[in-house]
Amino acid sequence: MTKDRLGISDRLILATHNEGKLREFRELLAPMGITVMSAADCGLPEPEETETTFAGNAELKAVAAMSATGLPALADDSGVTVEALNGDPGVYSARWAGEPRDFGMAMGLVLDKLATADATTDEARGAAFVAVLALARPGAETLLFEGRCDGHITDAPRGGLGFGYDPIFVPQDGDGRTFGEMSSEEKHGGERPLSHRARAVALFKAALEGGGAR
Ligand code: ITT
User: Fold this and answer.
1) Which of 26, 78, 110 for a ligand 1 pocket mutation test, highest count of atoms within 8 Å of Cβ?
2) pLDDT tens for each residue of the chain, 214 residues long
């Protein structure tokens, strides 16, 4: 595969400080022959996420890493949007976990708010994971790729795999297990991957191979 179609080489800066994302990107990009160095590996600071959309924050993070290094940089802004909570936590998914991050607490908040809203059925607990990837390149426009996974929120966390909100999210195209109960291969592998991040990476791959970005 030629990677110079988008002006990138087989090494990319991944503008993230999130270990869970880093692991998933390494797994998703390795089959494409791309290795990543994380923002943390490069000693880059974590920019403040001042935008109100996934696309805005993804672009902000990618451009910050590209400007600091002079190299192409890929960023991911993602989160879980819950219909009965008017889309929350959405772009604020990381912030709901506080500082230092406590996703047990963040998942508890989501579950409490759904209980308060009297959302008890799977339909009433509809949610989606969304990931927008931004590829910032020196001297070229930033490209965006969006992936989405619809599903619902469970009534209690299940499974210790994955990261973040995985234990309370059941993808609608799965077999009823949460992402927290799935191996990485089950969450994002195969020809028709379940996860929002893998779906965004598939669009990135298509653009590398000659397709278009969003
Ligand atoms: P970076 O900005 O450094 O990449 P972050 O954790 O702050 O790291 P975001 O602002 O994009 O990243 O926050 C997204 C949050 O949404 C993240 O912290 C996770 O808790 C959650 N999230 C995103 N994708 C997820 C996934 O596949 N599984 C579980 N939780 C996920």
Assistant:
1) 78
2) 445 678 888 889 999 999 999 999 999 999 999 999 999 889 999 999 999 999 999 999 999 999 999 999 999 999 999 999 999 999 999 999 999 999 999 999 999 999 999 999 999 999 999 999 999 999 999 999 999 999 999 999 999 999 999 999 999 999 999 999 999 999 999 889 999 999 999 999 999 988 555 4
Give the residue among 6, 18, 154 at the shortest CA–CA distance from 75: 18
| Ligand 1 mean position, distance from CA 40 (Å) | 15
Question: Which residues does a 6 A CB cutoff place in the pocket of ligand 1?
Answer: 16-18, 21, 46, 49, 61, 76-79, 93-94, 103, 129, 162-166, 179, 195, 197
Strands of the chain, DSSP E: 11-14, 35-38, 73-82, 126-137, 140-153, 169-171
Neighbours of 88 (CB within 10 A): 18
Architecture of domain 3-206: Alpha-Beta Complex (3.90)
Domains of the chain, residue spans = 3-206
**pTM for this model (two decimals):** 0.96
